[in-house]
Amino acid sequence: MPLEAFAPSTPLTFGVELELQLVSLSDFNLTAASPDLLHLLARKPFPGNVTPEITESMIEINSSVHSSYAPLLAELQQIRDTLVTAGDTLNIGIAGGGTHPFQHWSEQKIFAKPRFEHLSSLYGYLAKQFTVFGQHVHIGCGNGDNAMYLLHALNRYIPHFIALSSSSPFVQGHDSLFDSARLNSVFAFPMSGRAPFTLSWSEFESAYYAKMERTGIVKSMKDFYWDLRPKPEYGTIELRVCDTPLTVERAAALAAYLQALCRDLLERREAAPGEDAPVEDDYLVYNYNRFQACRFGLDGLITHPKSYENVSIREDILATLERMEPHAEALGSLDALRHLVMAASDGSDATLLRRQYELQGSVEGMVHAAINWFRGERRFRRR
Prior knowledge:
About 45% of the residues lie in helices and about 15% in strands. The chain has 15 helices and 13 strands. Strands 1, 2, 3, 4, 5, 10 and 11 form a seven-stranded antiparallel beta sheet that branches. It is globular.
């Protein structure tokens, strides 16, 4: 179908989507509990929204639209508490984390929904391998051109969000040596990666999307698995590179950081993508920087796309967080930035999971700890 018009939304409003793990409390493996959980949650008021995901051992929660950090955090905490109560009723655990550390894709069940069944038919085993868990953040844009500008101006900050959210070091029982192994599953899809370069919504609509639709490869924006993609029906851009954090507090802080960055970029103090160099120069180091963030997390080294200077991801994040302070003060999110400063200094959730594996001596013990972290308990945090 033709791409719908970009529906303007209030600039810098934001919302969060979180994909969550449903875990058996007997063996700490994933369990196909989403039909029962969704049935239970449908019988009572639910803050935000909850929907199925591609396999039955996962669900997705969506916040409402917010303009500031504190109400978003409060809603995510209310959603968490509602989910935990429902999980206790069904005797299942709910956890964050970008991958479950020892589930096997072949054991997963596709959720009975036409779109998911179509994806399973199209992508084969990749659909079940997509039992990975991410955080998506939507940022409101006043018009389509601003959306396309932000889509590309944010490209150099993508490693920040990968590193700060990384929570998927283990895959099928083994340490992958990646801080974010989840993104390797996403990159397997043909429509993943980055969006094509255009700063004009009309050009994107007519010169790119219309041609792609005519090929028959795509039918809607949902068919693109880009790191950042526009969502015209919401009037937003959507950041899709984050692992689901272990806590809703980290999820809210990441969303607030993106909001502050977008406020800064919209002031147009940095050169626009393609303005002072050929378009592709802005993306020359993109894939390698993204790899560094996935592989090494906060300890990675990235190359600045304009100066070609090699910089530590951790130091680049800390410098940027400091630069964002005036925006965070205006937006009411200084506490979110402080949370991320501590995360950048102390280590990501991937580091925390590895420490827990060493302490517990098993991947099952690590999952147990993750369930407790999501509940808001801190007794596993430091030992």
